[in-house]
Amino acid sequence: SGSAAGAAAGGAARSYTVKSGDTLSKIAKQMYGDAAQWKKIHEANRSKIPNPDLIHPGDELTIPQ
After folding, report:
1. DSSP string, 2-47
2. The domain 4-63: what is its CATH number?
3. Rounded Cα–Cα distance for residues 61 and 45 (Å)
4. Ranges under pLDDT 70 in the chain
5. What's the confidence (pLDDT) of residue 11?
6. pLDDT of residue 10
7. Where along the chain do its domains lie?
8. Where in the numbering of this chain does the LysM domain appear (predicted)?
9. Own/partner pairs for 56-62, CB < 8 Å, 24+ apart?
10. What integer pLDDT is reported at residue 13 of this predicted model?
């Protein structure tokens, strides 16, 4: 798999809308089956979420493949 930027440009990425109570780890567990993959989500959304501990309901995140 290529870089997160490459995945987003290729249209392979999915999007996810943050819900109340979500964390990047929870989203990673749901999307990849592995909470440790939260860093991949953070990298792909760094412009939207500079602090990985602060995500807000309604935020639209890119989920790289």
Report:
1. --HHHHHHTT--EEEE--TT--HHHHHHHHHS-GGGHHHHHHHTTT
2. 3.10.350.10
3. 6
4. 1-11
5. 56
6. 52
7. 4-63
8. 14-63
9. 56/18, 57/18, 57/19, 57/20, 57/22, 58/17, 58/18, 59/17, 59/18, 60/15, 60/16, 60/17, 60/18, 61/15, 61/16, 61/17, 61/18, 61/27, 62/4, 62/8, 62/13, 62/14, 62/15
10. 80
Give, in degrees to the nearest 5, the angle at Cα 47 between 27 and 8. 65
Is pTM beyond 0.70? Reply is yes
Within 13 Å, how many C-alpha atoms sit on residue 8's CB side? 12
The residue with tokens 């990298």 is 43
